[in-house]
Amino acid sequence: MAVSDPPVGAHAQVHETVLGNGLRVLVQANHTAPLASVWCWYRVGSGDESSGTTGVSHWVEHMNFKGSAGIPRDRVKGIIEQHGGHWNGYTWVDQTAYTETATTDALDHMLFIEAERMGRCLYHPDDCESERTVIISELQGGENDPEQLLDQEVAATALQAHPYRHPTIGWLSDLQAMSRDDLLGHYRRFYVPNNATLVVVGDVEPADVVRRAVRHFDAIPPGDGRRVRRTAEPPQRGGRRVDVLRAGTTAYLKLAFHAPAFPDVDFFPFLVLDAVLTGAKGLSLWASFRTPPPQRSTRLYRGLVDSGLASSVMGLLLPTADPYLYTLSATVTEGVPVSSVEERLLHLLADVRDRGVTRDEFARAKRQLAARFVFESDSVTNIGHQIGFFDSVGDWRAYPALRTSVEAVSFDDVLAVAAARLRPDACTVGVFQPVADDPAPPPASPPVP
Amino acid sequence: MTGPASAIGVPIRRQLGNGAVVLVKRTTTTPAVTINASFRAGAVCDPPGKEGLAHFVSRTIDRGTSARTVDQLSDELDGRGVTLSVTINRHALSLVSTCLAEDFDAILRLLLEVSTSPTFPDEEVDTRRREIVTLIRQDDDTPGTVALERVMRLLYGEAHPYGRPPRGTVDSVHRLRRSDLADFVAARVVPSTLVLAIVGDVDPDRALALASSLLDSLPGGAAMPLLDPSIPRPAGRRDEFIAMPGKVQADIAVGFVAVARADPAYESYWLMNTILGQYALGGRLGARIRERQGMAYYVSSAFEAADVPGPLLIRAGVDPGNVGSVLTAVDEELRTFIAEGPSDRELREATQYMVGSLPRRLETNAGIASFLQTVEFFGLGLDYDRRMAGLLASVTRDAVQAAAARLDPDQATVVVAGPPEARP
After folding, report:
1. Are B169 and B153 in contact (CB under 8 A)?
2. Is 0.90 topped by the overall pTM?
3. Superfamily of domain A9-217, CATH level 4
4. The pLDDT value given to residue A443
5. Do residues B186 and B332 lie in contact, with contact meaning Cβ atoms separated by under 8 Å?
6. For residues B374 and A390, is the Cβ–Cβ distance under 8 A?
7. Distance separating alpha carbons of residues B354 and B361, to the nearest angstrom
8. Engineered SS bond to B380: which of A257, B384, B387, B408, CB 3.0-4.6 Å?
9. Full residue range of the structural domain in which residue B44 is found
10. Is any Cβ of chain B less than 8 angstroms from the Cβ of A34?
């Protein structure tokens, strides 16, 4: 292996404690900078939503920055920044996460914010209304972007039963119709200590962090927190496609295949396969995707971009609790018919499926992944994210084990995954085709495939 | 000026005979190194009629060297899991790579080889040209970019490099030849315009010796011509609307010309911008337009200062029906800020934020390298991280208010791009 030392984030010890109310506390000491990063994770996301309340998890995330019993609403966003800190939050299919990173002397402020968020947010009716339009604005901003629009259409076509088919932001009619009671009900059910994990990484001592966590969180009573049963996606029984015709300048192509859940036995072989096809991205939703992967020697870059058919190509496989999608996205070069790109991409994939990959490609992909795992563990914020993210899709221990999990993948595993999972009858092809003018005004209600 | 070698303190700095500056800072957080080579060869260097040349160079410079073909280069990088990013902004062309410590020597050699001996094979130039045209067409379809480029054109005028699109136009890119790329590199991507920052798990003396040995033999190059710093002030408010059928949201850009980085009032403008449109999710603008009125998912202001007075830009994405209300809200917030200045608390918190965020900016190798580049680019001195707090603390409420006076709504340049029904 090219890597002589495991990443700092992986070999340093994680201390796990569970408080009396069920809150899991994970602490890693990392004394390289006078900083601490706090992440608070809830095991709920858009995969837990049903028809009528799609988007509720994301909206609740927004509401949880709108003040609490102990933090006036106009102070929420400055409370960490006045210490030079950074804060954020996000919602995805399996998780909702909140973070602050600041100098270590602000640790109690950060823990206080998260304890307030867990138990004492206000949900003032006026704030629910003003946030409704903020989120609709966020949705409209996404619809201005052809790639996001195509993403949404492809996910809703490739998945027909599992709730991962809903966009995390929700469908417009649900955002227009949901009430404060819907938001508050979701908040009270899922924002309980027994459904949460607190992660602290930085210039801290684990025992001290646990003492502080007890002080801030111990009085919060446990609650329900149970997820609803999710419908399993049945096997796909034939190729599907969706063609979006909208005003625009550029054509986009997106292919979706069914991906394994994490940590299904197919997951890491598929990750290596993706690295062969489009370059290793690592596995951090927070850090990895901000820098382009090494990719110019990959199959699809050489086949699509170097040949001039596409101006970019990208593959994406992410850890999820249930089987989600592996997507391949290409931006079609100006003047090239999108059908040429589609034909060429399907041909390249058929070749991988039928004839596999080379041992050189396999070895290079594993080396790339090992290096990316080092690069994405370069800050307390990024390490804290990874510990909490893997906890939210199963077990945080998967994070320190990433390198060995990739090392354990055999050449034959990769061939088997390519043959089994890149099948045309289990593929969804999505095309965004720009037209001079929209054939119809933007739909007033969300398109239902 | 050469600082002491230290594991935690000041980086080593050495200026070579040909003008190249090398900065090395050791960190041991991860067994990795970030190499950041920035040349003063940004889009402002595009000659008239050759708009997009620097950007074109950034997309082709790493496509073959005198020693390696394009495939050999990508095999070398990809085989080690290394990304070489070539980025361009108005002032700098930067080659940035993060590699494992054990790959440092090879990657530094490769990065400097790419900078100094690109071959621009014809086939690569043609393929990348089509990619760039596609990028420009994507920009044409992005309301935020359309509004931004138009507001910059109005603020700086066609003759100023800031007034031209950094990627050029479809026409200008079609006109560029291989010889233009080679000429640009010969004139601009040279040691005299280079700052090389190396940050990570390397021995500083050894890294410096290697960098020096690779760079020393190269000829320096000519000095950069200076940009004209006098930007004409607008005669009054300008409002433009650009219709983009098929879009569902409108993007607003409100622009002013502020001050240059070297202006004594720079820190006052920096704090003013933080209070107006940054602190706590969009500052005063965010508190009103997003938090209280719920009219935008994003609204903020940004202030960017370099050799010439830089722009201060307020940007928001809003529902077509709210464009008028948001523009009114922006104007009202500006008038209030001009009339009253910041409160003591706003000034105190914004200062604490900017000073307190330094440790985060300097946490990662890439963050430190980028900070060192800024310090070197503007000649701020290697003690700038320690001087910054004092500079900010000396800014008074009156000074911030004086900076805000530059943002007179009657002198604003306003562009809205969005669906036809968004016309205010």
Report:
1. no
2. yes
3. Metalloenzyme, LuxS/M16 peptidase-like (3.30.830.10)
4. 47
5. no
6. no
7. 10
8. B384
9. 12-215
10. yes
Quote the CA–CA distance of B55 and B157 in Å, as a whole number: 20
Class of domain A240-435: alpha beta
Q: Are residues B191 and B59 in the same domain?
A: yes
Residue B223 has pLDDT above 80, yes or no: no
Neighbours of A397 (CB within 10 A): 12
CA distances from B390 to B36, B274, B383, B414 (A): 28, 17, 12, 35
From B39, B83, B80, select the one nearest B58 (Cα to Cα). Answer: B39
Q: What is the mean pLDDT of chain A?
A: 93
How far off is chain B from A82, nearest CA to CA, in Å? 5
B81 touches chain A (CB under 8 A): yes
User: In Å, how far is B182's CA from the nearest CA of chain A?
Assistant: 21
Bridge-based pairing of strands B250-257 and B311-318 is antiparallel
Structure tokens at A140: 């409209």
Residues of B in contact with A247 (CB under 8 A): 244-247
C-alpha B334/C-alpha B405 separation (Å) is: 9
Q: What is the CATH number of the domain that holds B203?
A: 3.30.830.10
Q: From edge to edge, which strands make up the β-sheet containing A427-435?
A: A240-247, A427-435, A252-258, A325-332, A310-316
The count of domains in chain B is 2
Q: What is the DSSP string of A20-82?
A: TTS-EEEEEE-TTSSEEEEEEEES--GGG--TT-TTHHHHHHHHTTS-BTTB-GGGTTTTTGG
Tell me the per-residue pLDDT of A362-408, one tens digit each, with 9 for 90 and over: 999 999 999 999 888 889 999 999 999 999 999 999 999 999 999 99
